[in-house]
Give the backbone structure.
Amino acid sequence: MSWNSQGGGGGGPWGGQRPTGGGGLGGGQQPNVEEMLRNSQDKLRRLMPGGFKSPKVIILILLVLIGLWLVNGLYRVQENERGVELLFGEWNGSVTEPGLHWWPASPVGEVQTPAVTQINRLNVGFRDNTDLAGRRASQRDLDTESLMLTSDQNIADVEFTVQWRIANAGEFLFNIRNPEVTVKSGAESAMREVVGQTALDDLLTNAREDVQAKTQGLLQSILDGYGAGIQIERVQLQKAEAPPDVIDAFNDVQRARQDKERLQNEAESYRNRIVPTARGEAAGVIEEATAYRERVIKEGQGEASRFDQIYATFKVAPEVTRRRLYIETLRDVLEKADKVIIDSNAEGGQGVVPYLPLNELGRNRLGSGEKQ
């Protein structure tokens, strides 16, 4: 639609007057910018009769500016953040929790919101490139950081990782200038002190957990002394071994020590197996000898007592006792010999008396029954 087709006097949007100048817009003339500015100023004068110098206008502008400044003072702290409020560049000593807060905006105040739940990782003794999955892509060793002296005057190549986070946001921002350099220097100093109190063999074998715990505690005390506002979450040894120049000789020594321990264990096992057996056999021999001694003593005592009884009987009836001893001796001798009885008064002059050894027949029958 052209300007000429507008209603209200046919003068277009400029109050019934056609703007001057060459060229037309849709068949009409182009608007005059100077005329538009003059019209706008006239309307503004009608709204503010006193102009910008009017007290009402000044108060209105001040109120608008103050309102914008107050609204600009609202800030939000996320769950993983803490707010640190500054007044004229000075920290007021407080830390705000997550949520919506208000603090004077610039240039009076300022708010910083560092992330306090993020775990930061620092390597000492090596540098690596780690991807998002935590896989180590490449590594570069730093001997100036990793070589340390142990308590037994040996050199150990120690590489470790420190994990830390912000514990106090205000102290972290204003008490230390470079947090990573501070943590790295403190961690290296703490590890060197702990390793200097540990033997190399213990460091390589059974003292790793103890070294990690002591280093973490010592590093935490150092940072607390600085007022760094940092919490050490973990100190983990990545490598602890002899330097590369002597690693082969050190491995030979370790293998020799392992062979020594193995032979000692085998000897201890053999001793633990043989000594109890020998002690048991010795105890059995001693018990048998003791039993034999007791038996011989008891038999001797019995024979002596029997002899005393026979002697007492002999004193009372010597002839009877002498005859009884004679008969008992014959019994002991003849019971083991084959016997033939001869009677000089037998008929026929043979002198042989028929003899039926019933006791021997009984023994033979009993013996044959047992064999069957």
The first helix runs from residue 33 to 47. Residues 1-27 have pLDDT under 50 and may be disordered.
